[in-house]
Amino acid sequence: MTHSSTWKRAERLAARFYGTERLPGSGAWRRITKSDTMHERLYIEVKLRDHWPKTGVWPIFRDAAEKAKAEGKVPVVVMREKGSSLVLHVVAQGDIDTLVGERECSKNRDEPPPKE
């Protein structure tokens, strides 16, 4: 079983990657969004597992896509295995440009203002 601080950290890292914050608590009870983050346009679902079964991605993505559609957001599933530094960001092909644009915006927010 995964310790709660481990998956919370995975959620925080994914949220920071897209320039937003992790939402505390379980997604099912939230009224603002059921996503794991506060992002306005991306529905980010973070999953941390010991090992991923070969067929594990599709049902998770379909579920996230359904929830994202209800909120008018782009679904992104962030997947990580415990003990691995590899992180996968699963997104539908038609949403890649939006995802890249959001990532660029988040990087620009992290940069210090230019010196005059």
Q: How would you portray this structure in words?
A:
The protein has a single domain (4-110), classed as Trna Endonuclease, Chain: A, domain 1. Helix content is 38%, strand content 17%. It is built from three helices and three strands, in the order αβαββα. The chain has helices at residues 4-17, 57-71, 96-110, and strands spanning 42-49, 74-81, 87-90. The protein has a three-stranded mixed β-sheet with strand order 1-2-3. Helix 2 (57-71) links the parallel strand 1 and strand 2 (74-81). The protein is globular and about 30 Å long. It starts with a helix and ends in a 6-residue tail after the last helix.
Number of DSSP E strands: 3
Overall domain count: 1
Our measurement of the CA-to-CA distance between the termini, rounded to an integer number of angstroms, reads: 52 Å
Instruction: Look at the structure and give the mean pLDDT.
Output: 84
In CATH terms, what is the architecture? 3-Layer(aba) Sandwich
Helix share bin: 25-40%
- What's the arrangement of strands in the largest beta sheet? 1-2-3
Structural class: alpha+beta
CATH class equals Alpha Beta
Instruction: Give the helix tally.
Output: 3
Question: pLDDT under 50 segments (min length 5)?
Answer: none
Q: Tell me the major beta sheet.
A: 3 strands, mixed
Rg is 15 Å
CATH topology, anyone? Trna Endonuclease, Chain: A, domain 1
